[in-house]
Specification:
Layout (H helix, E strand, L loop, with lengths): L3 E8 L9 E6 L4 E3 L15 E5 L9 H5 L14 E5 L1 E5 L3 E4 L2 E10 L13 E5 L25 H7 L1 E5 L18 H7 L4 E6 L3 E2 L13 E2 L15 E2 L2 E8 L9 E5 L10 E5 L4 H10 L18 H5 L18 E2 L76 E2 L21 E2 L28 E4 L12 E13 L7 E13 L1 E4 L1
Antiparallel strand pairs: 1-22, 2-8, 3-4, 4-5, 5-17, 6-7, 6-16, 7-18, 8-15, 9-17, 10-11, 11-15, 12-13, 12-14, 19-20, 21-22, 22-23
The structure holds 2-acetamido-2-deoxy-beta-D-glucopyranose (2 copies).
InterPro entries: DUF1996
Keywords: Signal
Protein name: DUF1996 domain-containing protein
Length: 519
């Protein structure tokens, strides 16, 4: 099975700031366990996590330990970092609990937003999100970024807006990243999200310039005032790479079955979703990569510094689960969540129950079939100009309805690069954006869904500048100039023993470039 994608882009004038990034592909977990060396070092963690990255991971993981890893489950061999989040689980009506299949491991995006970005220093670690949260403060959906007031820009509000639960349905145009900040209920998922849910978390990228960690693992970092872009607050002027985790959970395998989805921390709302990071990079090496690997394609293969291993090699890299956790069964099927974590709906803070605590209740699972009132209804919304970020509702990729069956299976993934630097109707070499996923079951599918840019409109001719200076429109709070770009994408999918079928997708998007690009 083979597929060719050609992307031609006509972009008018102006190169904005190069919104360079790369997508660290961690297609396999290094493990699944009640371990959290950041929040609960040296002890069994409260709840289970899916963990990706360096093999030297355990109850007492340190930077030095990670650096001494024998391997990594991610594709860049120099990256021994540890990336983890709570797993998503399904609790059947009778209480039997099992992990939801995780599709493609995790993608950890390194987005190079801002000026003078510093590599993560040795020993740096951080947490994003708050496991206890069960409610949301703020309007639903988010007001346009240009209209955000002080209440939208508190660190608490920004952290809540940094979560996303993207309803995956490749038959529809994609939703924008971080559009919905809660986990939709089962009924909604069954009805709308045929390809599962993509859990997203954006990490703060503004550092106080001195602390490698802080008591709550958050206070040494801050969000810029538009979550993924904007201005760093006073005292946090040092820019680090912006980290963004994407994890796809195939909730669709439970379609029609009574029960409830719950994150491993007992959170059915998603408001308590969180992500953890301990750097496992050599500082000078990462600084070189940050300085030189500025290709806006996002492909790790475009960074000549990186030694890339195959998905299969990465999948062999697993950490050793400590003896004390040998009896744990975080994948299930089991009676309740691992660690006997109770489901806590909120809306107040969830209680943290430490393992070993005398007062630890038994699972005490009470089947809950409806979501708490704190979770609003928010219908499926196609990413539009107003909400499409640079990465087009699903970082840099999206779903497409009219793809031929041959490539609609997820077997071929064609990222659609976002043209940022002016390109004059320049066809990309066919080898560039095509990723063929091997059929071997050992290799999970990449998190990227099949093809297609988010906004499908009629072609309207070549791009041009359509505005300058203080444009304040949907989703844009600051910028220098606005240009119209036209992107033509042709996907050609040769079917065996059939004549080639051609599909032309033409798209137009308005794009803003500013000092920090769109953000
Ligand atoms: C609970 O229900 C699920 C789904 O029907 C089933 O697979 C599982 O075996 C049941 N568990 C028990 C303990 O009966
Ligand atoms: C949200 O949770 C916080 C922390 O427990 C609490 O103070 C607040 O009252 C909650 N809000 C609502 C609407 O319940």
């Amino acid at each position: 099975m083979k597929s060719i994608a050609t992307l031609s882009a006509a972009v008018a004038v102006l190169s904005g700031a190069a919104d360079a990034f790369w997508r660290m592909e961690c297609h396999s977990r290094s493990g699944l366990a009640r371990i959290d060396p950041l929040v609960e070092p040296g002890q069994i963690a409260n709840h289970g996590h899916v963990i990706h990255g360096g093999s030297n991971f355990g109850l007492d993981t340190t930077y030095e330990g990670l650096m001494a890893s024998e391997c990594t489950s991610c594709r860049v061999k120099q990256d021994n970092s540890a990336y983890w989040t709570p797993s998503l689980n399904f609790i059947h009506e009778n209480g039997t609990t099992e992990i939801v299949p995780q599709v493609g491991g995790m993608l950890a995006y390194y987005l190079l937003f801002g000026e003078n970005i510093k590599a993560f220093p040795a020993g740096f670690q951080m947490l994003a999100g708050d496991t206890r949260l069960r409610n949301f403060s703020g309007e639903v959906p988010d007001p346009e970024k240009s209209l955000w007031g002080p209440e939208d820009k508190t660190q608490h509000a920004l952290a809540q807006k940094a979560l996303g639960f993207n309803c995956m349905n490749y038959a529809k145009p994609p939703e924008a990243s971080m559009y919905r900040h809660f986990l939709p209920d089962k009924e909604y998922l069954d009805a709308n999200c045929a390809d599962g849910i993509r859990a997203e978390i954006f990490f703060p990228a503004c550092w106080n310039g001195k602390d490698l960690d802080s008591k709550n693992h958050r206070d040494h970092m801050a969000y810029p005032d538009l979550v993924n872009g904007g201005v760093c607050p006073e005292g946090f002027e040092t820019r680090l790479p912006s980290l963004f985790f994407e994890t796809i959970w195939d909730t669709s395998v439970f379609t029609g079955m009574p029960g409830q989805f719950v994150f491993a921390n007992g959170d059915p709302t998603g408001y308590g979703y969180h992500g953890d990071f301990i750097t496992g990079w050599d500082v000078d090496f990462l600084q070189d990569a940050v300085n030189t690997c500025t290709n806006p394609s996002g492909n790790i293969g475009d960074c000549p510094l990186f030694d890339i291993q195959t998905e299969e090699e990465g999948s062999k890299c697993q950490f050793k689960v400590p003896e004390v956790l040998a009896a744990d069964n975080c994948a299930g099927p089991a009676d309740g969540l691992c660690g006997n974590v109770p489901v806590q709906m909120g809306p107040g803070y969830a209680e943290l129950i430490q393992p070993g605590n005398e007062e630890t209740p038994t699972a005490g699972y009470t089947p809950v079939t409806t979501m708490p009132p704190a979770v609003p209804t928010l219908s499926f919304k196609t990413a539009t100009l107003a909400v499409t970020d640079k990465f087009g509702g699903g970082i840099n990729v999206g779903g497409q309805s009219d793809l031929p069956e041959e490539i609609d299976t997820g077997a071929v993934v064609v990222p659609v690069p976002t043209p940022i630097v002016p390109v004059a109707t320049q066809p990309l070499a066919p080898e560039a954006p095509v990723v063929t996923t091997p059929a071997a079951p050992v290799a999970p599918l990449p998190t990227t869904p099949p093809v297609a840019p988010p906004v499908a409109e009629q072609p309207k001719g070549p791009g041009s500048i359509i505005g300058t200076s203080t444009f304040t429109s949907a989703g844009v709070a600051y910028e220098v100039a606005i240009e119209e770009i036209t992107v033509y994408v042709t996907v050609e999918a040769p079917a065996p023993a059939k004549r080639h079928r051609r599909h032309h997708h033409m798209h137009r998007r308005d794009r803003e470039h500013g000092l920090l690009g769109r953000y």
